[in-house]
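Suppose you are handed a protein chain with no further information: no name, no annotation, nothing but its sequence. What can you learn? This example shows the usual starting point.
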Amino acid sequence: MNGPLHRVLGEIAAGTPTLAEIARRTGLSDDVVHAAIDHLVRAGRITSTELSLGCPTGGCGACPSSGGCALPAVLGNRRPGLVSLTLTRSVA
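A reasonable first move is to predict its three-dimensional structure. Written in structure tokens, the prediction is:
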């Protein structure tokens, strides 16, 4: 199985640092990567934790990801900032 969810999970497990880099390495579009991350969080396969450091409330626009701090927006948190994604152990 080498579908989008598995490819995104593989990149997270490998420590790929940004959504833009995950998209580049997997060949998936940004929209597909964002949807995969959102689905994986809802399914409990990964957890997201907002870090207490990072961008100011208004954002800085200087993040290496295109368009600034895109990850929190994907995860339903419209406030810019850094988010840590952590793989969860599968119970199968």
